[in-house]
Amino acid sequence: xxxxxxxxxxxxxxxxxxxxxxxxxxxxxxxxxxxxxxxxxxxxxxxxxxxxxxxxxxxxxxxxxxxxxxxxxxxxxxxxxxxxxxxxxxxxxxxxxxxxxxxxxxxxxxxxxxxxxxxxxxxxxxxxxxxxxxxxxxxxxxxxxxxxxxxxxxxxxxxxxxxxxxxxxxxxxxxxxxxxxxxxxxxxxxxxxxxxxxxxxxxxxxxxxxxxxxxxxxxxxxxxxxxxxxxxxxxxxxxxxxxxxxxxxxxxxxxxxxxxxxxxxxxxxxxxxxxxx
Length: 277
Known about the structure:
InterPro entries: AKR, Aldo/ket_reductase_CS, NAD(P)_OxRdtase_dom_sf, NADP_OxRdtase_dom
Helix content: 40-55%
Distance between the termini: 34 Å
Number of strands: 10
CATH superfamily: NADP-dependent oxidoreductase domain
Number of helices: 10
Low-confidence stretches: none
Radius of gyration: 18 Å
Active site: 49
Keywords: NADP, Oxidoreductase
Strand order of the largest sheet: 3-4-5-6-7-8-9-10
Largest sheet: 8 strands, parallel
Organism: Staphylococcus arlettae
Mean pLDDT: 97
Family: Belongs to the aldo/keto reductase family.
C-alpha cells in the first residue's frame, strides 16, 4: 500500500475505506472486516456517522482474520460540532475510542470548522492538548478552507497534518490544493466518487475503456496521482476489492488534464463557510 508522509514524520496509507452512511449493523462490520482481509490498512470513521460500534467490531474481526496487529492499521475518527470547545475535546475522543473498542487513534479530525472562529480556535487548542498527551498519533481537520487554516496558523501552535475535504473531478479545489502543498498539510478526499454521480461521466468512462479499468478505479487513481489521500466508501465485497486495485496502472498527462478540466466547482456536500451542523 502506498503511503504519504506527514510533516511530523508519521505515515498514512494513501487509500482507505470510508464508512459514511453505512448502517450500524453487520453491514458496517462485514465491510470493514472484508476491507482489512483484502489489504486495506486505513479506516475512516466519525462519531456522527453513528456506526462506530460495528466499525470497531469489523476492525477487531479483520485484525484476527488477517493475522495482523492493531499497529498495522491506521484508524481515523472525527470530533463532531456538539463536542466543540477546549474542555470537550477529550470527551468526544473518549466516546469514539470506546465505541471503536480501541485505546488510541492514529488520526483525529475536527469534522467541520463551524461558523464561530473563536470556538474553532479553542477547539483546536483542545486538539493540541490531546495530541500532547500521546492519546492520538496525529491531529487534523476536515472541511476547512484557506481562511480557517490561516486563522489556526495565526493563533495556535501545531498545524494540522491533513485536511479532509470534498474533492473530485467536478470540484478540484486547485487553490486549496496549492495552499495545502505550500503549507505541507496533506489533502484527503471524502466521497471521491460523488455518491456514484461522477461514474456516469462520459470522459471518465472513455478513459476507463481506454485502460480496461472501471470508472471508479479511474477516479481513485486520479486522486492518487494528485497526491491526495482518498477513502472511497463501499459495502460490496467486489467493489471494496476493485477500489483497492489501482496501483498497477497510471493515467497519462493527457488523461489527468482531461479529468481536471471537468471541474465545475460543484459540491454534493455543504459549503464549509456556512455549515454549523
